[in-house]
Every structure is written in structure tokens, then in C-alpha cells.
């Protein structure tokens, strides 16, 4: 199994960092090939500029984006780990999607919408939140965030969503609760 991990948190000692460690440990047990793209550490430039965007089709793909696309082509499994900020993903991750998942690479426009070009790939999402589940679910914010990633990105690119796991209220979670969450993450990876 060739697994690409896309990590979007500025701190390694965060709870997202603990999730990352657990995912890597479990993937090693499965003897998976692992590549990590820590977007903050590699100082990924998330801003899409006019010089590489023209009428919804990127005409000039820069070397840094070609490199990121090569990682996506290599992988059969994609694992995204990120916190929830303002009811969505961090800007650096949104910029990654904007710049890397280009028209003609990840999808193409067809008569009835789009056709995914990354078929055969599986996607997993581990998304932390500071808010408790009961604060996000009644207002359908969890469902909206899930729809953006699972449908608006994965489905549009032909990627099959394996799981989108929310880890709620991590800021106030005690050690026992955090251990249980990490055990759940490990359980998801164990059955890949």
C-alpha cells in the first residue's frame, strides 16, 4: 500500500501531531510505503496566482506543483490530517487543493459537470475540532464540512472516501478521552 499523508497543522506537538504519529505507526505495522507532505514544514505556497490560472484551466504548472502531483499519482491511499478552523480546513490545505488538484490533472470538465481523474485512490480524513459534537451536528456544520471534503474534493477528483472521522472537542479533552480518540484512529488504519 502506497500511502501519502497530507498534514496541515503548524505544530508537531498538537493533537493532530499525535494523530500523525499514530497513523504512521499503524501504517508501518501494515508495511505500507509512506510519504509525508507536512504543508507547514515544507512551506507550501497556497496562493493561486494569475500566472498559473487561466479560465478554470491551469496552463502553466510550476515545478513545485508538478512535484506535489507526482506524490498524488504515486499513492493509492491518501490520508489528510488537519484541524477545523472557522468551520473548515486551514487555508494552507485549501490552497493545496486549489493549486495541486488542477483541471486536467485531478478532474476534467465534461458536458454534465466534472469527471474525476484520480480514480482508484482511497481517501481518509482525520479532522479535529475545538467544539463538541453537540455544538456542530444540530447546525449541520459537521455535515457541511464533510460535504466539502468528501464530495467537493474527493468525489470530484474520483477519490473514494473510506472515512471522514471528526475528533470533537479536543481542546478540552482529558488524557483518557484523547487516548480513546487515538485508539479509534489506529483502528481505522488497522483495517485498511
Automatic annotation (TrEMBL):
Gene3D superfamilies: 3.40.50.360. The keyword Oxidoreductase applies. SUPFAM superfamilies: Flavoproteins (SSF52218). It holds the Pfam family Flavodoxin_2. It comes from the Bacteria. Keywords: Oxidoreductase. Residues 1-181 form the Flavodoxin-like fold domain. Transmembrane segments: none annotated. One of its GO terms (molecular function) is NAD(P)H dehydrogenase (quinone) activity. PANTHER family: NAD P H OXIDOREDUCTASE-RELATED (PTHR10204), NAD(P)H DEHYDROGENASE [QUINONE] 1 ISOFORM 1 (PTHR10204:SF34). Belongs to the NAD(P)H dehydrogenase (quinone) family. This is Flavodoxin family protein.
